[in-house]
Write a structure and sequence with these properties.
Blueprint (H helix, E strand, L loop, with lengths): L2 H22 L5 H14 L11 H21 L3 H6 L1 H26 L5 H10 L9 H4 L6 H29 L8 H32 L4 H21 L4 H16 L3 H33 L3 H11 L1 H10 L7 H9 L5 H14 L1 H36 L2 H8 L4 H10 L1
Helix pairs in contact: 1-2, 2-12, 3-8, 3-10, 3-11, 3-12, 3-16, 5-6, 5-8, 5-13, 5-14, 6-8, 6-17, 8-11, 8-16, 9-10, 9-11, 10-11, 10-12, 12-16, 12-17, 13-14, 13-17, 14-15, 16-17
């Protein structure tokens, strides 16, 4: 990256930090801002500035972001949330997610012309993970039942790590490398990644909890230590020929379980660092993929994107939650509110850099347009759907979610007083 590119990026990050609160009041989010900036800098009126991120920078940035996202998402999943809704989480991740990948792959083969099985699998797997960060309005909206918010949060925290091996296998197959790495070697890499992540994350979490309890760690540097732990899990796995991304994901889970309540003060540092890096990913996404995708836009791409946000997501969720007694409105809300965001963008950038522009372009175009449509559709519908979900719910149910005493409880309170 040249000095002028660095100056432009730094100025954009500063401007967003200074005016983000004002912009978000008008529903102008960080992804929208930085994707638009990437387009304007490369294909718009600011193109003469010569902003052009290199392929090496884009790939390194995408991989670093994926490591931070996997670790942070996994580490913020609370054990009590998993215990409270273990059955529903297992349904969503063990039934809904594989069905989403499978249906997405089949429809990609049917709708996208000239696509291979590997690229179809790449599309299906890359667009399966959801991004709770793009639905921050729903995640913090007290109008949405707490259980629904927990399910969305846990699902979003875990589904990108589960989908990552599928994406990597699809990229390897599309590149013609699938035959050079046998199934045994692939499984060995995944197992090594799991073991290394569990050891590094678990040991790091336990030591951090011990250090915090005895006052051995300096508060200003404890967050940096957790960030280094994420990188350590990834790098150790690579050094030992394991899967680094799986190590980062499992490391986040192990750290969250072993560090106890102290992680609630430490993980936000990793999330903030990841948020900063994610801004650069959205910028690279706008600069590298958006214009070519829109130039090659076809009715098949538009149809697939619409199906991806509806049928491909909502039907598997409904199947997975059948008989769970959540109510059809809640199931429909869970199915619809699955924004595609940063993980899908990172997968697209990794595929683009590993496969080359010509080979990856059909899949990247579909992923790109689907993410753009999701950012718009889910951003616009989040608050109205949340309000409607409350209006159709019974008053007692809404009050119970908010912790308001119900009639029977009120009578007991009056008797006790």
């Amino acid at each position: 990256m040249s000095a002028s590119d660095l100056a432009i990026v730094a100025a954009l990050v500063y401007a967003w930090g200074a005016f983000s609160g004002r912009l978000e009041r008008f529903d102008v989010t960080a992804p929208i801002t930085f994707v638009l900036a990437g387009v304007v800098l490369t294909s718009g009126p600011l193109a003469p500035l010569g902003f052009a991120p290199s392929h090496e920078v884009v790939k390194d940035l995408a991989e670093a972001t994926l490591v931070l996202v996997l670790f942070a998402d996994a580490s913020r999943v609370r054990l009590r949330d998993l215990r409270a809704d273990m059955g529903l989480c297992l349904r969503l991740l063990g039934i809904g997610l594989p069905l989403t990948i499978g249906v997405g792959t089949v429809l990609a083969l049917v709708l996208v012309p000239g696509i291979t099985v590997w690229l179809a699998l790449l599309i299906g797997a890359a667009l399966a993970p959801t991004d709770a960060a793009l639905g921050a309005g729903v995640m913090v909206n007290p109008a949405v039942p707490a259980r629904i918010r927990r399910l969305l949060n846990v699902e979003s925290g875990l589904n990108d790590g589960i989908a990552t091996p599928v994406v990597l296998v699809a990229v390897a197959g599309a590149a013609g490398h699938a035959g050079s790495t046998g199934p045994g070697e692939t499984v060995a890499e995944l197992v090594l990644g799991v073991l290394i992540g569990a050891v590094v994350g678990g040991a790091g979490g336990y030591l951090m909890r011990l250090a915090r309890r005895h006052g051995w760690s300096e508060g200003g540097f404890a967050g940096s230590a957790v960030l280094a732990l994420a990188v350590c899990a990834y790098a150790c796995a690579l050094a030992l020929h394991g899967n680094g991304f799986i190590a980062a994901f499992v490391g986040g889970l192990a750290f969250g379980a072993a560090s106890g309540r102290s992680r609630e003060r430490l993980v936000p540092f990793v999330e903030e660092t990841g948020a900063l890096v994610s801004l650069l990913v959205w910028l690279a996404f706008g600069a590298v993929t958006v214009v070519p995708a829109l130039q090659e836009l076809t009715w098949q791409t538009v149809l697939y994107a619409a199906l991806s946000l509806t049928v491909i997501r909502m039907v598997p969720v409904a199947v997975a939650l059948a008989g769970a007694r959540l109510g059809w409105r809640n199931v429909a809300f869970l199915g619809w509110f699955g924004p595609r965001g940063l993980a899908s963008v990172v997968f697209a950038l990794i595929a683009l850099e590993d496969l080359g522009d010509h080979a990856a372009r059909p899949a990247v175009a579909v992923i790109t347009f689907t993410v753009l449509l999701s950012v718009l559709a889910h951003g616009v519908s989040a608050d109205p759907l949340a309000r409607r979900l409350v209006r159709v719910a019974s008053p007692d149910a809404v009050e119970a979610e908010a912790g308001v005493p119900q009639p029977q409880e009120r009578r007991l309170i009056r008797r006790a007083s």
